[in-house]
User: Fold these one by one.
Assistant:
Number 1:
Amino acid sequence: MASLIPYEPLNRLKPAADDLWIVDGPEVAMRYFGLRLPFTTRMTVVRLSDGRLWLHSPTEPAPELTAALDALGPVAFLVSPNRLHTTWLAAWRKLYPLAVTAGIAAEAAWSGARLDFALDLAGAGPFPWAPDIEHLVAPGNTFSEADFFHHPSRTLILTDLIENFELRRVSSRWLRLLLRVTGPLDPHGTAPPDMRYSFRGHLPALRDALARMRAWGPERIVIAHGRWYETDARRELDRAFGWVEKGA
């Protein structure tokens, strides 16, 4: 299979719901099972009711992208949902020094770098993006993940707790081989094996988090890797998290 650019056009705002956009960014190399593999990246942008912009898992800040964001409103929040999704955070902070950074303060970046967040997502709050956005933190052994719900559009925003790779959009033959062996592949996206391992010691907390996600009543689920779910959010949650209910 020839090399391809996944989810093009890249670095463009793509409407997903009212006041919510996704941005597919360039691939980023991550070490996985001893290999350095290219993973697709995706940012979620929310325009809050006061007009400020909330950026989840920021992708590369390309000039055409930042210009489009500036036309939408002021960039106010830069959110790192877990320690894997910090690659371009420093670059965004340099471009938008007044934006508030948010992440799980107790956990260093995957590279080992210590990150200085203005807001700790694991803290008690209140958080300045309420009532538009609500979140929870699912604790894990090697890393935790903050998951968000945008109330006005009824959109659940996950990161790595569900991955749903489309093989035709994966440029690396090694990653395609690994995904065939381990999953998670479209249309049966779920958590990859390393993620499941991280959460195995915290299944009661993860079940509580899943119950809260269901209670939010999402209509769609945006994820960071692979095809996201435009409809049937409750059904996809039940399917993708079946391993949690089984205690696997």
Number 2:
Amino acid sequence: MSDAASTRALIAAYYDAFNRGDTAAMEEMLHDEVEHHVNEGGIRKGKALFSQFNAHMTDSYRERLTDLVIFASEDGSRAAAEFTVNGTYLKTDPGLPEARGQSYVLPAGTFFTIRDGKIARVTTYYNLTDWTRQIS
């Protein structure tokens, strides 16, 4: 398998775990020094902070990703994924509108850096204004 193919397989497995709600499996695919760049937020460094983020997200949102397309550089060091987020807002997130079980469908994308066969950077983008409009 080429480096690009290995990277595409890693990212596909990561999102398969996401869709199963298996955050432990997702975290196993992360480099110990992972950097998580949050949409319109800060940078979380390390698996422990990524795990805290996952716990918060699982508590506040139920999401399933569809229409997944994965891209990878030839050397496999970088990747991107485009997808549709199909979600339900379960619990009010501080600073955001009140959660009442609202549904949303949102295009999104993530950029990755791969190091030592693991995901070393996760940078996700989506339109927060569109999400807010849908759940308001």
Number 3:
Amino acid sequence: MMELERLTWSKPLDGFDAFQVTRGKVNQRNPYSEYNLCDYTGDDALRVLNARIELCVTLGIDMDHLIMPRQVHGTSIATIDQNYFNADYDKQEQILDGTDAIITAMTGVCIGINTADCVNIIMADPVTDIMAAAHAGWKGAAARIASKTVQAMTRMGAAPAHIMATMGASICQDCFEVGDEVVDAFWQKKHDIDSIMRRNATTGKAHIDLRHACALDIEAAGVPACNIYQMGTCTRCQPQRYFSARRLGINSGRTFTGIIRHT
């Protein structure tokens, strides 16, 4: 049975259901087992469809109310509103293609993103009911997808002071060894390198804390630090529970993280 692991907020947040789908029963010979909802990483299309159907049944929504983008490690953000649902299938696909964050204020619509080590960011403003899901790999994190998502929510009417943010399982700093070109990408965008990067004393290799980089970026957009929660669980350290590209390779499943407001 599909398990939805509920995400934690730094303070109670009624009306919003934020979760990530755990792998389920893992077949060691199948890097897509058991529950993979991502349809562009090489998995069997029918398996992906069945996983999406099971999630929709669990959430009590129709298939067309499960919205996820085709991510490209960029900073494009899509808004899901009635105009999206009024559009034909091709237009909907165009809206979601090349998108790394989704925002909506609609009831009964589950928005989410797929990750396998990248940071999965969920945000909500309980005053305006505006919510967002953002995917932040190192390219997106360096390019400030987190603060750009906060800014997009603000343009819709959310207030940074009211926004709550939570992050699920993603790669930890110890596991995230990177080349200096990655460090330079963060430096070019004026991230606080001293706060997010350290070097291994033995290898001299850089290690970046992606979750902390995203948290600082969210805070820089006006969200109080006390409103930001980091789960702290590492996907690479727990590949039996979460998909990890660094453990399984890029041709593997992705962990779906979503949010829905039922009422």
Number 4:
Amino acid sequence: MSDYLDDDIIDFDDSEELVEQIATVIVENREIMPDTPVYRLRLFYSNETFLAAYNGEILENGRMVIVPTRYGRDLSKVMGQIRKGPYFSEMAVIERLATDEDLNKAANNKILEEEAFAICKEKIAAHRLDMKLVSVHYLLEDPKILFFFTADNRVDFRELVKDMVSVFRARIELRQIGIRDEARVLGGLGICGRGYCCHAISDKLKPVSIKMAKDQNLSLNSMKISGPCGRLLCCLSYEHGFYCEQRRSCPQEGMKMSYNGTLWRVLEVNVVLGKIKLVAEDGSQLDVPISSCEKVDGHWRIHKE
């Protein structure tokens, strides 16, 4: 789980541009006042988080609640209270606190999900469908079973659904998800030895580009900058802003600078170590700290510290 889950209250956004007084909004025909506590909740089966309001007792971290989701009413875990931030029109409203009966039912559903997973895999093989089953989830308060799968192309699973309905006697919903979504749902350890960013830190899958790897002076070997999901590492996106900000305060590769009467060309900039590597016309190289570089009249130079 994310490190910020240990805090009692989560900062949604520290931007000064946020309005302190939030207008009343209507969500699902209910009126939510500006002083109504808002919480961030997490769904176990998809690892997604979302905001929900609750006009009752203050909920502590880890409390289980019943809340309407896009698939139906389900069990969700309170991650923390939002200290401040805007209210969204799609924000959910917590219906009630989970009871012991709800928790027991959720535990029983876990067993049913394992059985349904095995049955669905057999049915997929029998229908010879080119798809990979990722997970199964029984909704807590709605007679519906969700099956999440990945596939390279669109899959015609209409016959599979009919077969599954005859077995489970319940509403069946198959949802195709992406490779990165699969990693977020299942979790695991990344090449850094820690949990997947998309699973343990944030459930928001931010766009990642090869330019981010270039800006961070990383090897463009796909094996080194790709995660276990086969896509570019999420951390490239998280750290890109830091590199861009630091590079604005130092010379770029290819620039020429004069130092001790010799003309040097910037060969490499290492913002993590705070050093730049220079090369002279005769091939000699020199490492200098970025702090020794200054820009005067639009030109970079190295001053002696």
